[in-house]
């Protein structure tokens, strides 16, 4: 799958699934703009991509801050005349019983996992509408499809991201814009490695394929939705979870 000549924004691109996505899209021919709060790792990912002879830039981005999103948009468009692909990968959460959640926790989970993709998509959608083309791919989670013990707010936010994807897909299909969603299962990322080992072991045991996903395996699905191979697919949600949920 090639996306030569395209420019892609990848949020959360400094590590985990976002890093793998930036690398995958660059390997397929896109110039990637990595948005992340982690400047050191973000710069390092962009530099490594450039060292392979591919195009990449890093810009600071806090998806939960509207002013940061606006600044990121302005700087991205100053670097590249148009954004063809938006990959909303940035996410955050932790396992905690709902009754132990604080209002501040609720807000952070919703701001990063739901309103973040909303804000970034809203920022770059006008150019796509004007050109009658574009790809928006949002990383949700199988937690948003079937729920997850100890991740009630996270599941709610990710479920909202799925519904947002489906509704937006209907709204912008007339402009030739594809909007789709990738739902990872448990994936070997820094965020998951911060979870207690007993929870990681439980995830593996519950997965029919008996292992965690590699970030690159999630990135492969994102690349598919970002490519012309998915030109007649919109409003869809695909699980990449080794059979963990077998969601319908």
Query: Unreliable runs, pLDDT <50, ≥5 residues?
Result: none
Average the pLDDT over all residues and give the rounded result. 93
Major β-sheet annotation: 7 strands, parallel
Judged by helices, strands and strand pairing, the structural class is alpha/beta
Domains, number: 1
Q: What is the radius of gyration computed over CA atoms, rounded to a whole number of angstroms?
A: 17 Å
General description of the model:
The protein has a single domain (7-237), classed as Rossmann fold (3-Layer(aba) Sandwich). The chain is built from 9 helices and 7 strands. It has helices spanning 16-27, 39-51, 66-79, 103-131, 143-146, 152-172, 190-193, 197-206, 215-226, and strands spanning 7-11, 31-36, 56-60, 85-88, 134-139, 177-184, 237-240. The protein has a 7-stranded parallel beta sheet with strand order 3-2-1-4-5-6-7, with helices on both faces.
